[in-house]
Amino acid sequence: MNLFLKDIDNEKLVTWDYLIDDINNTSIYNPYCKSADYYSVFKHIILSLLIDEEIILLDSDFTESELINLTGRSDYIEFNMPIEKYNASSVSNQRELLEKLSNSSKKWRITLFTSGTTGIPKKVSHDFKSITRFVKVSERNEKSIWGFAYNPTHMAGIQVFFQALLNGNSIVRLFGLDTKDIYTEITNNGITHISATPTFYRLLLPCNETFPSVERITSGGEKFNEKTFKQLNQVFPNAKITNVYASTEAGTLFASQNDIFSVRPEYESLIHIENNELLIHRSLMGSTGTNVDEWYNTGDVIEIVSQKPLKFRFVNRKSEMINVGGYKVNPLEVEEAILTLSGINNVRVYSKSNSVLGNIICCEVVTNSSQITESSVRTFLQSKIQEFKIPRIIRFVDELTTTRTGKLKRN
Amino acid sequence: MNERILEIMNTVLENRTKEKLTSITPEMHLRNDIGFDSLDLAELTVRIEAEYDIDIFEDGIVNTVGEILKKLESKYESFSQRY
To answer: What is the per-residue pLDDT for A116?
Structure first.
């Protein structure tokens, strides 16, 4: 059996043959893709490539008001279109499918949404070349079995998906499972590769067992501490552990074995450092719908370790975005959502460092209504914004006293 | 202390509109039995720290209610020995 996807949470066990049959028998396509089922999302992406149509990925937990903000609507049925030409040249096996995928996609684009810096999440589109820039297709990768540990509609998840897809690999869902199920899935399926946020790995630890099948552990999105690194080495004794630097705008850019990133010579001319901030050339970026300058400010402050070859280390972020377990949260977006609740006079969202998620979202609220409680604010927000954006600690104050980084405001 | 930890856990559950607990036992697993996800665990650690001044996840993730109680007890024991 040649496994394409195993997702125990959605009770899916799908072979490549089943996937191919299913694709050949699909007659309707809709560019908008919003599903909590990993298989539907993956099939949707493959289908979009085969028929060379744009695909727009929406998080399955986007609320109705988020959908309206992002796309101007929350119902996409009218975008259904029949699949015509494609059926005439349907694929018969995995090899043919992979060949077609690698050669397709002239006008194909994949669009996703990222927390923008202005309060409104922004749209980022990539073409096939930019989304697969770091995919390595080789004989050595043919036998890889991927533990899938990201949200499938986010940049990191899409990149892992393409790495696995174009090598004809098996994908086993790990994201969102209980720790014991994650370990069972690793063992039962002989998972060889895992790419995840440090928070995902942190939640797997401590563990007294070892998992020798894993050859490669990749981490990114937030800083990895030395202790987690050592524990992971013990749990996965045969794994090479790599850190990557990636963003929704540009995808994976740099990789390192520790916290020092080296820049490959071919990219040296495409990155630039200004006031210690990392700038990347627009040729490395997906398109954001707005006019971008030649250089894009990443908001990441770096420290140069050596000039030739160029090596650097990330120090912190210049922007106000809060990294919650690898998810970027824009405090302005959260403040705007809270202010739509009547009875709220003022709000300040800030982050607090946290041993589980790196940072958590907190807020101070000024209200003169006795109806407003921590749980009423939280319940209200559940229909407005995604769960990871909702403040976990809400303080009621007479006037705002903290800055967004959680420091006391000095007057 | 158990009662207070139960109250804190219920605050976290209530805030997520999840079902509250009537009692806790040391062997209860935070994720598998109580149903906390990583966001809840993050909130739990902040709420416990605010009251007991100890970050229960500082040295890695704890898995059961008993492990939390042990961390809190050991801190308070060493405190009473010193003073």
So the answer is: 54
CB contact under 8 A, B58 and A227: no
DSSP A129-171: HHHTTT----GGGTT-EEEE-S-TTSHHHHHHHHHHHHTT-EE
Length of chain A: 411
Q: Is there a contact between A198 and B53 (Cβ–Cβ < 8 Å)? A: no
pLDDT digit string (tens) for B40-53? Answer: 999 999 999 988 88
Residues of chain A positioned with their CB less than 8 A from the CB of B42: 325, 354, 356-357, 360, 392
- Let me know: does A233 contact A207? Beta carbons within 8 Å: no
Q: ω before A206 within 30° of 0 (cis)?
A: yes
Half-sphere exposure at residue A276, Cβ-oriented, CA atoms within 13 angstroms: 10
- The DSSP bridge partners found for residue A141 are none
Q: Is the ipTM of this complex over 0.90?
A: no
Angle at A113 between CA A250 and CA A202, to 5 degrees: 75
How many degrees, rounded to 5, is the angle at CA A129 between CA A124 and CA A134? 95
* Residue of chain B with shortest Cα separation from A375: B15
User: What pLDDT, on a 0 to 100 scale, did the predictor assign at position A185?
Assistant: 97
Burial of A266 (0-12, 13-18, 19+ CB in 10 A): exposed
Q: Which residue of B has its CA nearest to A205?
A: B61
CB contacts of B16 in chain A (<8 Å) are: 378, 387
**Is residue A77 within 8 Å of A31, Cβ to Cβ?**
no
Contact across the interface for B42 and A379, Cβ inside 8 Å: no
pLDDT tens-digit series, residues A116-140 = 555 566 788 999 988 888 788 999 9
Cβ proximity of A109 and A56 under 8 Å: no
Return the pLDDT at A85. 61
More confident residue, A253 or A221: A253
Question: Which position has the token pair 């039962």?
Answer: A188
CB-CB neighbours of A17 under 10 Å: 13
Closest of A13, A2, A138, A28 to residue A83, by C-alpha: A28
**Is A375 near chain B, with CB under 8 Å?**
yes
Using CB atoms and an 8 Å cut-off, which of residues 155-194 of chain A contact chain B? 178-180
Could you tell me the pLDDT band of residue A106, with boundaries at 50, 70 and 90? confident
Tokens 């907190």 locate to A362
pLDDT in tens, A230-286: 888 999 999 988 887 776 666 667 777 667 788 878 778 888 888 888 888 877 777
Half-sphere exposure of B83 (CA within 13 A, CB side): 5
Band of the pLDDT at A195, cuts 50, 70, 90?
Answer: very high
3-state secondary structure of A82: strand
Confirm if A325 and A355 have CB atoms less than 8 A apart: no
Alpha-carbon torsion, ordered A222, A219, A182, A163, to 10 deg = 130
